[in-house]
């Protein structure tokens, strides 16, 4: 099995967890990150055992340098905020689509054997059936989703045209330590920020909307398995379980001992999807693993994690 890995976005939320797991498994790891959202602190415990390149995937020369000598590329670098993509569609295309194309081109030139790409459930748009399987119609509703789907198509095209083995993992709602604490952070982190300040969580809509929340270490399991068993194609990565936003808020309030805080309900945000849950049967059958972290367990780890120093400030 390949033992030399490049992780783009390796200083970011999911990437840093993957890097630490790869190092622990004996991989030689190179990280390419421009530190737009990634942080060097996320890699503190392995920083002396990896090669770290500060650079941007939009720069082909940087990409060429980064892929030399590796066996596998885990491509996680991306811009991921839906609302920001509405204001900066060209930037999102350049990073998520053209950046991926740069990596695929360089990988082919270097005769790299495996390319693993993290995509998003956003490519499905508003689901017409639940749970969402990999054959569900694709209907991206934002420049972000469109740019990720474009990158998926490049992965498929390079697989067919050049024989580069590509695996596409469509991630559902990932959470856990090291999650970005910007103002565009996910609903879990927004709830934690307010609860930590003894303020009630704000829920947009009636709170009955559902999501499929998967713990970051379970995602890392699937990423590593995607290499171990040499799986090609597209796979949904979630838990297969629906959690309403009301249930999420209630669980967080219970864990933190602040059940006296009652959620504040505001108008639904335009464009928000009502329900989302993954059909993960294909991934489970192919990778022979299942997500093992319950939502309550994952939330406890996230809240108490000493690996995310930013939590002390929220």
Description of the structure:
The N and C termini lie far apart (42 Å). With 314 residues, this protein is α/β, with parallel strands linked by helices. α5 links the parallel β5 (114-120) and β6. The chain is globular, with a radius of gyration of 19 Å. Helix content is 38%, strand content 18%. The chain contains 10 helices and 13 strands.
SSE map:
Blueprint: E1 4-8, H1 13-24, E2 28-33, E3 50-54, H2 60-67, E4 72-75, H3 82-87, H4 89-109, E5 114-120, H5 143-162, E6 165-171, E7 173-175, H6 187-196, E8 202-204, E9 210-211, E10 213-215, H7 216-228, E11 233-237, E12 243-244, H8 245-255, E13 264-266, H9 281-287, H10 295-304
Parallel strand pairs: 1-2, 1-4, 2-3, 4-5, 5-6, 6-11, 7-10, 8-13
Antiparallel strand pairs: 9-12
Helix pairs in contact: 1-7, 2-4, 4-5, 6-8
Quote the average pLDDT. 93
Q: Give the SSE string.
A: EHEEHEHHEHEEHEEEHEEHEHH
As an assembly, this protein is single chain
Total E-strand runs = 13
Largest sheet: 7 strands, parallel
Give the overall shape.
Answer: globular
What is the number of helical segments per DSSP (H or I, 4+ residues)?
10
Q: Which percent band covers the strand fraction?
A: 15-25%
Going by helix content, strand content and strand pairing, the class is alpha/beta
Strand order of the largest sheet: 3-2-1-4-5-6-11
C-alpha Rg (nearest Å): 19 Å
Low-confidence stretches: none
| Percentage of residues assigned to helices | 25-40%
Q: What is the terminal-to-terminal distance?
A: 42 Å
């Amino acid at each position: 099995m390949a033992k030399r890995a490049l992780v783009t976005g390796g200083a970011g939320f999911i990437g840093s967890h993957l890097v630490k797991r790869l190092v622990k498994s004996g991989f030689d790891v190179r990280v390419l990150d421009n530190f737009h959202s990634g942080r060097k602190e996320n890699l503190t415990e392995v920083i002396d055992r990896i090669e770290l390149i500060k650079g941007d995937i939009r720069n082909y020369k940087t990409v060429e340098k980064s892929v030399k000598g590796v066996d596998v590329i885990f491509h996680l670098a991306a811009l991921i905020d839906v609302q920001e993509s509405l204001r900066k569609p060209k930037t999102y295309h350049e990073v998520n689509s053209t950046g991926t194309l740069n990596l695929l081109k360089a990988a082919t030139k270097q005769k790299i054997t495996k390319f693993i790409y993290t995509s998003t459930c956003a490519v499905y748009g508003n689901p017409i059936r639940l749970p969402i399987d990999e054959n569900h119609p694709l209907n991206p509703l934002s420049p972000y989703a469109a740019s990720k789907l474009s990158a998926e198509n490049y992965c498929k095209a390079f697989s067919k045209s050049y024989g580069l083995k590509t695996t596409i993992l469509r991630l559902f709602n990932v959470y856990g330590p090291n999650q970005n604490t910007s103002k565009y952070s996910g609903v879990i982190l927004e709830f934690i920020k307010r609860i930590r300040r003894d303020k009630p969580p704000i829920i947009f809509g009636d709170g009955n909307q559902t999501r499929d929340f998967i713990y970051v270490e379970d995602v890392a399991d699937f990423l590593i398995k995607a290499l171990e068993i040499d799986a090609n194609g597209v796979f949904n990565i979630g838990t297969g379980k629906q959690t309403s936003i009301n249930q999420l808020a209630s669980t967080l309030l219970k864990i933190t001992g602040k059940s006296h805080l009652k959620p504040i309900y505001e108008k639904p945000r335009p464009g928000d999807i009502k329900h989302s849950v993954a059909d993960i049967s294909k991934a489970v059958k192919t990778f022979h693993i299942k997500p093992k972290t319950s939502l309550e367990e994952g939330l406890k780890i996230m809240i108490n994690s000493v690996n995310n120093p930013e939590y002390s400030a929220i």
